[in-house]
Amino acid sequence: VCLCEGLGNMTLFDKAQALKFPKLVEINFDHCSDLEELPGSICSLTSLERLSVTNCHLIQKLPDDLGRLRSLRLLRLSACPSLSMLPPSICRLQQLKFLDISLCMSLKDLPMEFDQLPKLKMLDMNECSGLKMLPKALAKLRSLKRVICDEHTEQQWLAIKASAMPNLTVDVVEERFNLDWLDD
Fold first, then answer.
1. Contact 6, 30 (CB under 8 A)
2. For 124-155, b where at least 16 C-beta lie within 10 A, e where not — what string?
3. The organism sits in which domain of life (predicted)?
4. pTM (2 decimals)?
5. What does the alpha-carbon distance between residue 90 and residue 107 come to, in Å, rounded to a whole number?
6. How far apart are CA 50 and CA 26, in angstroms?
7. Which residues, other chains included, contact 18 with Cβ-Cβ below 8 Å and sequence gap of 6+?
8. Nearest residue to 22 via CA among 1, 45, 43, 49
9. Mean pLDDT by 10 residues, the chain (184 residues)
10. Domains of the chain, with CATH numbers?
């Protein structure tokens, strides 16, 4: 689903329709201009391995049952600036290897149970300026190999690396989008 309008008022599929796609492994929502929230029925697609929700500027929340997507390996939530929280059930995604929350500026915190993601290898949290403090549980992510962050969380990640994760690679990316010029 790309560059679409009209999804904000539409149910993409109910549970019965989701059962018609028992082998669906990937869904992409990109530039869906009026999509405010993903339908909970998406969580019935238990074979889903990759879910991308990118450039959906009105999305404010994810389904509470997101943790039912037991096969999910990649979750990309990039450039969803209105997304204010991740549901705690995200920590039940036992197969998740890659999480991209870059450019989600309204995220205030990460679930405290983040250490329950045993296979998470890469976390992209570049330009998540709303995140001020990282949960201590992140230091328990033994599979985490690479973090992409910005200068807002760099020192916290370097402290985690020094204390508990010496093999972690912390890549700091310069800010790409900045609206400071509006203040001048």
1. no
2. bbbbbeebeebeebbbbbeebeebbbbebbee
3. Eukaryota
4. 0.86
5. 14
6. 5
7. 41, 42, 44, 45
8. 45
9. 46 49 86 88 92 95 95 97 95 97 95 94 95 91 96 94 96 72 50
10. 23-131 (3.80.10.10)
Q: How far is residue 166 from each of residues 16, 70, 135, 179, measured CA to CA in Å?
A: 47, 29, 18, 35
* Residues 56/82, Cβ–Cβ less than 8 Å: no
- Which residues, at least 6 apart from 115, have a Cβ–Cβ distance to it below 8 Å? 137, 138, 139, 140, 141
User: Which amino acid does the sequence have at 154?
Assistant: E
Please give the C-alpha separations between residue 108 and each of 45, 60, 67, 140, 148, in angstroms, as whole numbers. 28, 12, 20, 21, 17
Q: How far is CA 44 from CA 22, 54, 67, 115, 127, in A?
A: 9, 21, 10, 25, 31
